[in-house]
């Protein structure tokens, strides 16, 4: 498995190359899409991207935890966590080891 990280700049550049818009317009489109997704998750909505997956926010309750170094018990406060469930299409693509850039 590679340790490469796909950055926002690389995504913007991919949009630029694929769609043919200017680099500025490509960056704005990506920024707008990420902003809409973020705002939807903050407001408690699910975000489902067909053939990719579903993002959702889940509430975790207060619970007892344990410090693994010291063994001391501590209360873990309630919090929200972001979850992602990949679509079956994405799972198949990941597990079939298709070449990068192959269409869905």
Structure description:
With 104 residues, the protein is of the alpha+beta class. It has 2 domains: 7-45; 46-98, HU Protein, Chain A (Irregular). Helix content is 39%, strand content 26%. It has 3 helices and 5 strands. The chain has a 3-stranded antiparallel sheet. Strands 3-4 form a two-stranded antiparallel sheet. Helix 1 packs across helix 2 (23-42). The protein is elongated and about 55 Å long. The two termini are 21 Å apart. The mean pLDDT is 90. Belongs to the bacterial histone-like protein family. One of its GO terms (biological process) is regulation of DNA-templated transcription.
Structural class: alpha+beta
- Reported by name, the CATH topology of the largest domain is HU Protein, Chain A
β-strand number: 5
Assembly status: single chain
Order of helices and strands: HHEEEEEH
Beta-strand percent range: 25-35%
- Rg, nearest Å: 19 Å
| Helix content estimate | 25-40%
Mean pLDDT reading? 90
CATH architecture assignment of the largest domain: Irregular
Total helices: the number is 3
Q: State the strand order across the main sheet.
A: 1-2-5
Number of domains: 2
Q: Which spans of ≥5 residues are poorly predicted at pLDDT below 50?
A: none
Q: What is the CATH homology-level superfamily of the largest domain?
A: IHF-like DNA-binding proteins
Q: Largest sheet, described in full?
A: 3 strands, antiparallel
Separation, N- and C-terminal Cα atoms: 21 Å
CATH class of the largest domain, anyone?
Answer: Few Secondary Structures
Name the overall outline. elongated
